[in-house]
Q: What sequence folds into this?
């Protein structure tokens, strides 16, 4: 499918998705959200990791598109929010690891997009925040819930109530981003992290993601049961046999994802 507002490339089993509307600081209008949902549903079968970043040199994504939202009704807002939730849930549930390379402003829906990724790295010039209350609304693409799970309830309330924009260093201090890189090294760093992951058994990485993701919303007993099931399932895979055999034979494993 040809996209207007996003670009999707693949490099060595890493899919790189760029949100590319730099004139509007990559703001998410309906068309862009639809393209994202479609891209997440149809990534190339060869992609074993996904990196998301923003086009241009200023923004990751500066939020949902305010010019589109300014005059919509409550019913249309529900539809718009549902579209964002659907796209981001699809992203969150991808069976491959996902990395947000936050190269500039990640505000509102942009911060929420990053939060739906597994890992977030930021450039030194990134600014992150959920400024929706300054527009008279609240985050509508999962930000109130995902931010709370990442930084804790009180810090999430502080960020959402004040709408404050954090610089990258502060975002790292509170655990909202993992590491801060010079702007020209951000993408290379994300590719290197993806590269490390790619050396491991793809089924194991996928299973690890699944049990962490689903386990985080359950009590410890149920979550540990998920882990037990995931662990056992992997013993039916060729990758488990190859991984352990390679260790015993003192050689690198050749995983096939089967
Ligand atoms: N939507 C639409 N256009 C935008 C957005 C946006 N979120 N952000 C920037 N733009 C546009 C500007 O209007 C401007 O366009 P133009 O050149 O035509 O005037 C262009 O991008 C460049 O922006 P600025 O001139 O403002 O650039 P600055 O460097 O001066 O400022 C900022 C950069 C600080 C990022 C500033 O643009 C800004 O504050 N943007 C808005 C940030 C924001 O409030 N984001 C949250 C939006 S609300 C949201 O995301 C809710 C999500 C849930 C929705 C649920 C739906 C129901």
A:
């Amino acid at each position: 499918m040809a996209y207007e507002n996003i670009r999707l490339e693949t490099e060595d089993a890493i899919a790189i998705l760029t949100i590319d509307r730099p004139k509007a600081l990559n703001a998410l209008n309906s068309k862009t959200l639809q393209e994202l949902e479609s891209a997440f549903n149809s990534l190339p079968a060869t992609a074993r990791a996904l990196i998301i970043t923003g086009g241009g040199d200023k923004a990751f994504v500066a939020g949902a598109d305010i010019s589109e939202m300014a005059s919509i009704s409550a019913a249309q807002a529900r539809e718009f929010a549902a579209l964002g939730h659907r796209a981001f849930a699809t992203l969150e549930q991808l069976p491959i690891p996902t990395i947000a390379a936050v190269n500039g402003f990640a505000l509102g829906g942009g911060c929420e997009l990053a939060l739906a990724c597994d890992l977030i790295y930021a450039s030194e010039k990134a600014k992150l925040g959920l400024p929706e209350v300054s527009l008279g609304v609240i985050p509508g693409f999962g930000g109130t819930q995902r931010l709370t799970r990442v930084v804790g309830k009180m810090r999430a309330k502080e960020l959402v109530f004040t709408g404050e924009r954090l610089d990258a260093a502060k975002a790292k201090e509170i655990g909202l981003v993992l590491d801060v890189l010079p702007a020209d090294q951000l993408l290379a760093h994300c590719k290197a992290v993806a590269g490390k992951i790619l050396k491991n058994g793809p089924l194991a990485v996928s299973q690890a993601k699944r049990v962490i993701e689903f386990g985080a919303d359950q009590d410890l007993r149920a979550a540990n049961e998920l882990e037990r099931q995931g662990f056992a399932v992997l013993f039916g895979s060729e990758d488990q046999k190859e991984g352990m055999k390679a260790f015993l034979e003192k050689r690198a494993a050749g995983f096939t994802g089967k």
